[in-house]
Amino acid sequence: MQFGIFSVGDVTPDPTTGRTPTERERIKAMVAIALKAEEVGLDVFATGEHHNPPFVPSSPTTMLGYIAARTERLLLSTSTTLITTNDPVKIAEDYAMLQHLADGRVDLMMGRGNTGPVYPWFGQDIRQGINLAIENYALLHRLWREDVVDWEGRFRTPLQGFTSTPRPLDGVPPFVWHGSIRSPEIAEQAAYYGDGFFHNNIFWPADHTKRMVELYRSRYAHYGHGTPEQAIVGLGGQVFMRKNSQDAVREFRPYFDVAPVYGHGPSLEEFTAQTPLTVGSPQQVIEKTLSFRDYAGDYQRQLFLMDHAGLPLKTVLEQLDLLGEEVVPVLRKEFAKNRPAGVPEAPTHASLLGAARKGADADREGART
């Protein structure tokens, strides 16, 4: 399994001090968090994409390219690439460029975002959100796999004899996850292409996540990509830890109470009981995270949200130390226990390249016989 962190890049006042970081401070903090993730042995750093306050990551490839130059092993990803409001041609070119710069340490997660006003800013209609996601990704998928593309659709100008540049590294496109919280159409889309499906797994109870993952797995098998157990699943989650669980609850409560996403609603105790949010000791985080397998099956990627709601950088880095030193080593060991041999590992550029070469060799052998 791959373990890592994902950030939405919010600029939120610290409720305990009243201070709001500058945009520069928040951007630099995200970089520091990514570098720390590699230092403590995590596998993945993923950034969101937003084009409105109070968020800063409007250009994920710029940030990830900078991080790529300062890391050696970390896999760089997105927690949302806006397939609805970005031009798929630009996505194809930007992420292929990043793939080359990062020596293949790149994948990305397609999403529609959750901010309605963004659509008209980029000339689109939110009422067409699902249709945009389906059509734009269909084009992106072809742009990465066909050297010359002729295409016509509803939402952008036609293409005639078009080649996106640069071509994907080694002829292998970045692996794509399709992220969704509640849209079965997106789970269906991921299954159709044989791509990965990532469930946010923060806001909703386990039975909802279970239904979405099971839908994806069953449709993955329906389209002939393998068994349901071979489908590629990723989950999110949010944690806040201290050595003593009471200290964690006391310290995190003011941040939870005013958080932009879930503040001013259910109590911290209600939210942790009803959703995957874990606030407590490292052992409690381990136990709650291991329970995800009970409803999602054996899966490939676990990302944690660590820097939301105004938490200061110092605190986030302390959280990452606990995650890397006390939590993830145990999770790696426990998730590996009794994992069926047929469950695939998380895709990487190396594994995708190996599969492509194996397929090419098989095709050549078939042609000779």
TrEMBL record:
Keyword Oxidoreductase: yes
Ranges of compositional bias, category Basic and acidic residues: 358-369
Biased composition (Low complexity): 9-20
Key word Oxidoreductase present: yes
Transmembrane spans: none
Region (Disordered): 1-21, 340-369
Record-linked SUPFAM superfamilies: Bacterial luciferase-like
Protein name: LLM class flavin-dependent oxidoreductase
Organism of origin: Streptomyces erythrogriseus
Organismal lineage: Bacteria, Bacillati, Actinomycetota, Actinomycetes, Kitasatosporales
